[in-house]
Structures are given as C-alpha cells and as structure tokens.
Amino acid sequence: MTHSVQRIWIDPEVRDAPLTERVLRNRGDIPFDVVPHSAVRQAVSSLQKGKQLLWITRTPGGPVKPCPATNPPYLCCRYTTVHAMTQCPFDCTYCILQDYLDNPVITLHAEQDLIFREIRTLQQDEPKRFFRFGTGELADSLALDDLTGLSRDYLRFFNTRRNVLIEFKTKSGRIENLIGPDPKHAVISWSLNPPSIVRKEELRTTPLTARLDAARRCQDTGYLLGFHFDPLLVFEGWRNGYRALIRNLFERIDPDRIAWISLGSLRFPPALKDVVLKRFPGTSILYEEMIRGWDGKMRYPRPLRVELYRALAGRIREHAPDVFLYFCMESPSVWQSVLGGAPASNAEFDFRFAQSIHSRFGREVDMDQPDASAYI
Amino acid sequence: MENHPDRDKSRVRDFLFCEGDIMEDRAVPIQNILNDGTFRFARRDADKIARIAASIRESGMLEPIWVRSMPEGLQILAGFSRYEAAGQAGLSSIPVHYADADADVFCQILLAHRVSSDFNVMEKGRALRIFKRLDPVGRERIRCLRLLDLPDKPSVLNEMEELLELDPALQAYIESCGAALKQASQFLPFRTEEQRFCAEIGETLRIRPVELLSVCIPLREIARWNISSVQETWRGLGLPNVIQSEAARGQKVQEIKKRVHERRFPKLTGWNRSIEEAARSLNLPASVRIEWDRTLEAPGVEVRIHADSAKEIKHLTERLSSGPAERAFHRMFRMLS
User: Fold this and answer.
1) What is the pLDDT of residues A108-162, one digit of tens each?
2) For residue B115, which of B12, B2, B6 has the smallest C-alpha distance?
3) B268 closest CB neighbour out of A42, A274, A301
C-alpha cells in the first residue's frame, strides 16, 4: 500500500526524538530535510502540497482535549481527542479539516511523553470516569502507521491502564502494526460509506472491501471494533446503497465484537462549502438541501435526517440489537424520533456509553462498574 | 485651492523623504509619459479625475507624479489619476518625480494612498501582485501587508490575488460596492460568463453583494445539479419576466429570491407548504397565530393567542382542541416531530 507522503521535514528541535528516529528508519526512499519551523508555513500554503509532506515537530500545548463537538442542543458523547497528528493524507471531499485546521501540512507531534502525561493527569482528575480516547479526530489514526508506528506506542501505554479505551479511527487498511500486541484496551474503528461514495468522495482512501477485510482481521486478532456511518450522505439510491453496506458489514463482522456504531449525517461549517467547491468542483454532495442548524453548521433538514437514520438504525438493529448505537452531534428531537429516547445531557450520554461497554465488555477491558455520580 | 486632492499626499511625501533623498522634480512633456498601467492598483475613478482636472485648471498641478525612466519613455509609478486629469486639463507638460521601482518606494506609494482613501479588496489584490513582482524574496512583505491591512495568512493572500482573475465586469461591481473579501471570494467558483451575468444582475437590481450572493449561489447550485448554467437557470425560472415587470425594485428582488429558494429547496418548501395547509385548515381567527421554525430544525409549533378575556381564551382553546383541529395538528406534527 502506498501513501501520498513524498517528503519528510523535521523540526531541528525534535531531530533526535525517538519518534523522529523511528520515522527515519521506516521512511524507505522518502527524502527528508531538517527545516526550521518558520519556513514550513511559508513554503506550503495549499492542502494539495501539504498532504504530500510529513512535518515532524514539537507537541503543542494541550494535545489531549475534549472533542470540540458542537454546541447545544446537539448532543455529544464527551469523547477525548488525542492530537498525536494533525491533517490527513486522504482527501475526502467533505472533510472538515480542510477548513478547521490552519496548517495544511501533515504534522506529527514528536513529544509523546507530553501526550501520555496529559492522559494520566486526566484520569487522575476523574478516577471514577471511564474515558474513551481517540487519535482519529484531526487525522486518520492508521493511514501513516507504517511510517510512525504510533499505534504500538499507544497500545503499549493503554495496556497497563484501567477504565480506558483508545480508539484508532481510520479509512485505511493499514493494520500490520496491530497484529501481535495485546488488543485489550483498543477499539479499531472504520468510517463506512457505500463503495460509490468511497470512489467519488473519499479520495485516496482504502476501498470498502479492504476496510472490511482489515476489520475482520482485527476482530480475529481479538480487538473490539467500532463503525462510524459518518458522514451519511443523501445521494441517488442512498437507501439501497446503505442497505447493501450494512448487509456487507454483518456478513463479515460478528456484531458481538462491535463496541459501538455511530450515525452522523453530513454537517459542516458554512465556510467549508467554498473550500470544497474550489478543491472538488465535480462533487455533488453540496447540492442536496441543507439548512443552517442551531450550531451554525450546515446540515440536512431534520425530516430528511430522520428518514436517513431510521433507514439505517432499523437495519443495524436487526443485525446487532445490543450494540451501542448513537448519533454524533444530533438534536434530542432526532434521537427521540429515531431511537425513541434521548440522553438528557452530554454527561448522561457519556454515562450510557460507559454502561453499555461495561455490560458487554467490562471484564475484557478492565473496567469498573460506572457510577452515575461520576458523570451526572 | 480648497481641499486640493494633492495636498495630503504632498505632506506625506515631505514626511517620508528627508531632504537629501529628494531628487529634483522636473516638468516633462506629457507625451513622454507612457500610458501604461503596470503599477496601477487604485481603481479608476472618473469623478475623482474630473475633480482633479478642475483643480489643475484653477491652480495648476502642484504635486508631481512618480515615474521611472524606461527606454520607451517614463513609466508611471504613482499618480495615474493626476496624469489623466492633467491631460483633461490640457497641460502639455507635467511635474514628475523620478524614483526606482522597488519594494521600498512601492510601500511609500501605498502609504500615500492610505492617507487619502481606503483600499478596496480589488486594490489590495492588485497592490499585492505588484508588490510580489517588485520583492520576490519578501524582504518588505510584512510592511506591505500592514499597509494593506492584510493578515500574514497564505490562504487569505492567495484568495486576494485570485480575485484578480474574476471577470472585469464583476471586478468593477465589487469595487463599486466596496465588497469585503469574504463576499467577493464567493464569486470565485462561478464560471467567467456566469460572473459577468452576476455583475449584470447586481447592477440591474442595484443590490449589494450579500443580497446578490443570496440569489446567485442557489442559482449556481441548481445549475450545477442540472448540468446547466446560471443564465439558463435564470431563464428557466422565468426571472427575466420579473425583471421586466412593473413591480417596484424591492418586490422584484423578493420575488426573485422566492422563486430561486423554492427551486433550490423543493423538499423544504413542500414540507412547509403542507404545514401551512394544515394550519390554514384550522380556520382560526386572526387572534390565534401558529408559528414554526421554517428550517424545521426545531420540533413543534408555537400557538400564540391574543385574547381580551378569560371567556375568549376558553373559547379559543376549546376550538384548538376540537376533533378537526386535532387532526390538523397531527398533520402538522408529522412534519415537525
């Protein structure tokens, strides 16, 4: 499998960091240079160029944060994001990072100790809370794992901890580093869309079949799995497309090994629209009817979202009645219309999440019985 | 002599140059000056030129234009309006100040411009492009950006320069309206002939860019979806008839917006119509108003009752909870819940 990185630049301040050394060992014939920080921003202004460059630099302050999520009344699960990397070598037309991140360059943060220290502190501050961490919020968790080997560092770190899961969220099939280590505290998850959407809108990503094959291998290795139907798109034939996708998923994957499944329809800040139009003039995803939600983001009108979610949730429930099925950034009224009930708050959402994991996999993931008082 | 446009610039120039720097200004025959816009960044303002010409006729040309010597003649660095005004005033020779075309001099020119007027977004783009030619290494970059009130952000600067590729008619519209970068850049995804068409609509309806974009963006989206053009979509919606109608300008704009919106959002329009019909079927008096969020993001409806007495409230609430009303509300909530 190849990826788009064509050059590696190294901040002189992290030239000798162990992670830098490892990337250099794994780089094959990708050329590298030591380049001062100030030069990078000036040299690369376009995303197209930025996605070809891996910039290894210091870890910024606060690399472990609550998911930026969105504003109330839309509900969020209180996920915690780990900014091990920012930017992504894939080029999804709808990707929010095109607008969200200032720096177009794929950036790897070399000072891992800082990240691990923050994770420890967070857990110490709320010892009774079950944390879900993820490295796939501002980057793809595994797309460059052959170069960085980050997954093994995180597996090793989380392996000794209680009440915690690390999620590697990806659109790749790059799981080689996952085969071997103890899979105890990790969930490997994939974003899924029908093959026609993968081809047209998720450029440079791994085809759906290969993603599902990789998921199957991870399942067989003992990992818990996650799946994110996000962003769900309205396109001609969407109902059949998603029906086939769900059938395809459950033909290969055991529902009892799925820790969670999320649903989230296309949403983005209005400014992204111009970026997408400019970078992908041929995409049709922007032409469906959208409204500006209460959080200022563009999204499909509620009746259309409900129709989408009902179609998917019904099918998923047929195959996996016990899986924790949730919405990412949805309003309580949508929860109510589709699932018949909504968490009263983000904290309760988080608690329900923990309860589900505990009841299904508590022993497997070294997890204490969630205590409502630690959440709500 | 009152409010002579040259005066502010003259003061800035005096401030900028210490005595030793100033080369002797000389009067040169006007035909020796090249009519060349290489360094022109400011918008051509016919009214301003006429005002300067009038002033020159009255008081003569006080402030020299800035030029550099080229084999073909003298190339203007600053003072395009004054040069044109001098021609209009019938001068055969005009005072010039010789300068080099470098980043430092250009920054001085920008500063002089800033004193008398604000830069519009197109002027900033043109100035930036000239500056990059003069200073490819970017030694005076930050100074230039400060003078233009621009952030040192590549995405903004690229966009600023991209505006220079817009159709000239649209550029002229943007300049005449003083549109901000945020608005102007939204015309970039339009095809060139569509940009011209947008400018035409803007000029015809005399609307501001924000309003023009609220019509043209959905038009473009409908066009792209139907593999058509903005112009064809405009015709397909019967909008030329709206323009030619006798209605007042404001009404025309509203009608155009309505038609475009309905075509762009057929589902949303349909859902709202169904709710409207259900609400109408209640046959409620004017004292009861049913309102809902037209984006349908908020569930439910708001029922507002204006009443003068408890008796009236009782009467209206009974009516609202009657069998037919209940059925109508059910129809509404099917869409809204």
Assistant:
1) 999 999 999 999 999 999 999 999 999 999 999 999 999 999 999 999 999 999 9
2) B12
3) A301
Nearest residue of chain A to residue B300 (CA atoms): A333
Mutant choice from B163, B297, B334 vs A, greatest count of A C-beta within 10 A: B297
Residue with the bigger pLDDT between B6 and B240: it is: B240
Please compute, for residue B310, the number of CA atoms within 13 A of its CA located in the half-sphere on the CB side.
0
Does B295 lie at the interface with A, CB-CB under 8 angstroms? Answer: yes
Give yes or no for a contact between B110 and B103, defined as CB atoms under 8 angstroms apart: no
CB B68: neighbour CB atoms within 10 A?
17
Residue A88, pLDDT above cutoff 90: yes
% of residues, chain A, pLDDT over 90: 89
**Pairing mode, strands A202-203 and B33-34:** unpaired
Q: What are the chain A neighbours of B297 within 8 Å (beta carbons)?
A: 291, 293-294, 301-302, 331
Contact across the interface for A289 and B267, Cβ inside 8 Å: yes
Chain A residues in contact with B154 (beta carbon < 8 A) = 41-42, 45
Residue B158 has its nearest CB partner, among A45, A274, A289, at A45
Contact A301 B335 (CB under 8 A): no
DSSP, collapsed to helix, strand or coil, labels residue B171 as helix
Residue of A nearest to B266 (CA): A289
A287 and B337 within 8 Å at the Cβ level: the answer is: no
The vertex-A338 CA angle with A334 and A340, nearest 5°, equals: 100
Q: Do the Cβ atoms of A42 and B154 come within 8 Å?
A: yes
Q: Does B266 touch chain A (CB under 8 A)?
A: yes
Give the pLDDT of residue A1.
52
CB nearest B186 (choices: A45, A274, A331)? A274
Distance CA A184, CA A171 (A): 22
pLDDT at A274: 85
pLDDT at res. B10: 53
What local confidence, expressed as pLDDT, does residue B17 receive?
Answer: 43
Mind listing the pLDDT tens digit for each residue in A275-319? 998 899 889 899 999 999 999 999 999 999 999 999 999 999 999
Are B103 and B140 spatial neighbours (Cβ–Cβ below 8 Å)? yes
Q: Is B62 exposed, middle or buried (0-12, 13-18, 19+ CB in 10 A)?
A: middle
ipTM reported for the complex, 2 dp: 0.89
Q: How many H helices and E strands in chain B?
A: 17, 7
In this prediction, residues A200-207 reach a mean pLDDT of 96
